Amino acid sequence: MPRSTRRRPALAHPEAESIDLYDVLHALSDPTRMTIVRILRTEPERACGTFPVDVAPSTLSHHFKVLRESGVISQREEANRRFSALRTVDLEQRFPGLLDTVLAALARNGDDA
């Protein structure tokens, strides 16, 4: 049977100037998503299936979608893999110090999110 020639729809990313604070805060409110953000803070890019989180693949896809659509991460596809990167420059321009403040608060509270 031949493989489908249909391509997946393009990934939606908000323009930097339209990143909304409430959407970002919502995206950062989940422990699994914060684990993804913390890892991406130290690595420039990472394949989506390589994050050390204990959730089902469909749930992980949902978390990536929330992060991507809020403007926290960008994603690109390469062959059959999807790579994620933190939108540090865009976030810093829109909300100076926000990401550092949230990550520092987690570290102070000893949260292993």
Structure description:
It is a single chain. This protein has a 3-stranded antiparallel beta sheet with strand order 1-3-2. The protein is globular, with a radius of gyration of 15 Å. Helix 1 (21-27) runs antiparallel to helix 3. It is built from 5 helices and 3 strands, in the order ααβαββαα. The mean pLDDT is 90. With 113 residues, the chain is an alpha+beta fold. Strand 2 and strand 3 (81-86) form a beta hairpin.
Entry keywords:
single chain, alpha+beta, three-stranded antiparallel β-sheet, globular, 5 helices, 113 residues
Can you lay out the helices and strands and say which pair or pack?
Blueprint: H1 21-27, H2 31-42, E1 46-47, H3 57-70, E2 73-78, E3 81-86, H4 88-94, H5 98-108
Antiparallel strand pairs: 1-3, 2-3
Helix pairs in contact: 1-3
Q: Which oligomerization state do the chains in this entry correspond to? A: single chain
| Strand line-up in the sheet with most strands | 1-3-2
- Low-pLDDT ranges: none
Strand count: 3
Overall pLDDT score: 90
Q: What's the SSE pattern? A: HHEHEEHH
Radius of gyration: 15 Å
Shape: globular
Strand percentage, roughly? 5-15%
Sheet having the most strands: 3 strands, antiparallel
Helix tally equals 5
What is the share of helical residues?
Answer: 40-55%
Distance between the termini: 44 Å
What structural class do the secondary elements suggest?
Answer: alpha+beta
Summarize the structure.
With 113 residues, the protein is of the alpha+beta class.
